[in-house]
Amino acid sequence: MFSHIRIGFEFLLLFLSDKTVLSNSTAENYKIQLDEILIKNISETSEIIENENPTAKFIQKLKTLLDSGRCYVDERSTQSITRGKGYIGMEDTAKFYLLADTVHSEIRKLCSEQGERFSISKNQLLRQLADEKILMKQNNRNTTTIRCADGKSMNVIILDKSKMNL
Fold first, then answer.
1. How many CA atoms lie within 13 A of 63 on its CB side?
2. According to the model, what pLDDT value does residue 46 have?
3. Sheet strands (E) in the chain
4. How far apart, in whole angstroms, are the C-alpha atoms of residue 83 and residue 26?
5. pLDDT tens sequence across 10-41
């Protein structure tokens, strides 16, 4: 993108120089100023990307999905679990029991709709959640099979609510 800006600006300066609106030395000064601006912008952009925390974004978007009602979780103790549209898992007072693929997909959709990117893969996200001790691993695995109150088994990720700052 920055190269397109630079090329377009060069054509503009060339045109203005040809029409004697700008002197060659003034055009060169503008090129130098543009280069400084572009380098500063590139540096700031890369810093923002480096400082972006996918787990914080995941938690924020999860909260948005739940607060808006677009997605929901059932209480873990509920006897009849309704697994309709927007169902992403269960919860109790201390933990979320989420369907990893479903919640990752819903967060990616939400980010896309909001003009944002959530470019981290599900496995990378789970690894980062585990590194930050938000994901509660059992038997050194990211997912855990639990038995629901209705007797059915579910393969879920378990997230510690106390570490999510909801």
1. 10
2. 67
3. 72-75, 87-91, 95-98, 144-147, 153-160
4. 67
5. 999 899 888 888 898 998 999 999 888 888 88
Distance CA 105, CA 102 (A): 5
Distance between start and end Cα atoms, the chain? 37
| DSSP character at residue 70 | S
> Please, what is the angle between helix 100-113 and helix 122-131, to 10°?
100
Q: Does domain 54-163 have CATH number 3.40.1010?
A: no
Task: Give the C-alpha separation, 113 to 86, whole Å.
Answer: 16
Q: What is the pTM of this model?
A: 0.67
In the predicted model, residues of the chain with pLDDT beneath 70 are 1, 46-51, 78-82, 149, 166
